[in-house]
Amino acid sequence: MEGRNLEWLLAAASDAMLIADHSGNILLANPALCSLFGYEAAELRGQPVETLVPARLRAAHAGLRSGFSAHPRPRAMGAGAELSGVHRDGREFPVEVSLSPMSADPPLVLAIVHDITRRKQAEAALQESEARMRAVFESVTDAIITIDEFGAIERLNPAAETLFGYTEAEAVGRNVSLLMPPGDRDRHDGYLRHYRATGERKIIGIGREVEGQRKDGAIFPMELTVTEMWLGTRRMFTGVVRDISQRKEAERENRQLLQELTSANEELTNFAYVVSHDLKAPLRGIGSLADWLATDYAPHFNDEGREHMRLLINRVHRMGALIDGILQYSRVGRVKEARVAVDLNRMLADVVDLLAPPAHITVEVQPGLPTLVLEPTRLQQVFHNLISNAIKYMDKPDGKVVVGCSQQDGEWRFTVSDNGPGIEARHFERIFQLFQTLAPRDRVESTGVGLALVKKIVEMYQGRVGVESVKGQGSTFWFTLPAGGRPPAGAQLQETA
Asked: Does the record carry Nucleotide-binding as a key word (predicted)?
């Protein structure tokens, strides 16, 4: 009856169990064990327990079994060495076995077997995760410092050792204030006490710039981010430190450059006023005197004298225009104008009307130009200079200038085309430089500022400018503007007349 009760108990158990005799032969295997190893109970009865052990481990297992039989004692689960079991299909898996001697004559052994595959997989995953974290901790370029809730250093990664000059062995166990300037040390200890007492955060989770101190006493600026974590019941803090000495030096240099640039702009502004007043005043006097001579002494001049007077007056006017052009060029990007919605159709009509092209030149503005938000005077200067140049250099009896626009690749592309003399490709870059002209100055009045001004204004708006031309057939000057300059619905349009 006792044996039948034992057999019933084993059959009802959810754990895999077997009973073996003193020779290691299986007397009884419950359904859970049969399911675990893939056998029928009748197949295991009378077989040595090594049947459930991989062949390569059976000899060693037999020795362990003999040692247990000689000195039988209960062995709790997990108290012994980890073993491997083998399924009937040959698949091996890790198992943990607890053994209990049973009072019988001859003696018997009860074995409880647990499949620990999932635990082993979890342990392997944990070890892999730890290895990855260790690799990150060891290789990351930022300094990482781990302390306990009382400020004692527990870990320094290699980057922190290099940054502060301490080895991990030198720093572990010492207060983290070791890495701070003297003035910050007492405040840090007080902050930790205050945080433990109140939970009020001042640094944790908030990146901030502070100062650190190296082993050699050097103080340097650093960026610090602190995070809090719990390991069981232990509260830990991890600080990520980045040396920002180079960034601070760059910021200092930038401030100095900005100050120098501001000073240079002020000097340029003052220079512009000097040019406008001190140079143009005597120039106006020379012009007035030349006009008076040309008028009152006209009968006394021969043809050569009259030509010289014409050249003098033209060059005075050119000098005045050159000064005005330089002032305009210096103001671009320095003197700001309010950006408003500008209807380019209306603007181009005003520009053409202002230029009043001669009868033999037709200026055609293609319809449907966009409305953009920008500084109206600046764009008016661009179109004025391009159309004015096309008119000024026209060498055909039936001249034509066409202004067009298209949208492509996220930008507006504007063109001013003419059927004039054209430009050789070798001059394409030169003509956009300041004071550069291709025609003799005494034949065509030009300061050489217009296209340089166009280039500067367009690039101020992050656009591009260029020219396409065939000698003797004409030229197409083009420039681009970002397409994001459309006005919002209902925006007030700027009158450009």
From this structure: yes
333 or 198, higher pLDDT: 198
Work out the average pLDDT over 50-79.
Answer: 74
Q: Which residues contact 478 (CB under 8 A, 6 or more apart)?
A: 413, 414, 415, 416, 465, 466, 467, 468
Q: Given 243, 267, 289, which residue is the final one in a domain? A: 243
pLDDT at site 213: 92
191 HSE (CA, 13 A, CB side):
12
Q: Which of 204-218, 353-367, 442-456 has the highest mean pLDDT?
A: 353-367
pTM of the model: 0.45
Query: What is d(CA 226, CA 207) in angstroms, rounded to the nearest whole number?
Result: 7
Closest CA to 218 of 165, 262, 294, 291: 165
Structure tokens at 236: 């830990």
| CB-based contacts of 393, cutoff 8 Å, min separation 6 | 420, 421, 439, 444
Per-residue pLDDT at 414: 94
Q: Are residues 461 and 358 in the same domain?
A: yes
The two most distant CA atoms of the chain are separated, in Å, by 155
Phi first, then psi, for residue 134 (nearest 5°) are -65, -40
Instruction: Look at the block and give the residue holding tokens 């001697």.
Output: 101
Coil, strand or helix at 66: helix
CB 344 within 8 A of CB 405: yes
Domain count, the chain: 4
User: What distance lies between CA 149 and its chain's CA centroid?
Assistant: 35
Residue 129 token pair: 């995760």
Report how far residue 143's alpha carbon sits from residue 159's, in angstroms, rounded to the nearest whole number. 5
CATH number at residue 93: 3.30.450.20
Quote the CA–CA distance of 394 and 342 in Å, as a whole number.
29
Structural contact between residues 400 and 418, judged by C-beta atoms closer than 8 angstroms: yes
Question: Residue 68 to residues 61, 82, 107, 116, 310: CA-CA distances in angstroms?
Answer: 11, 15, 12, 22, 127
Higher pLDDT, 316 or 24: 24
Which residue stretches of 277-435 are H helix?
280-296, 303-331, 344-355, 376-392
DSSP state of 29: E
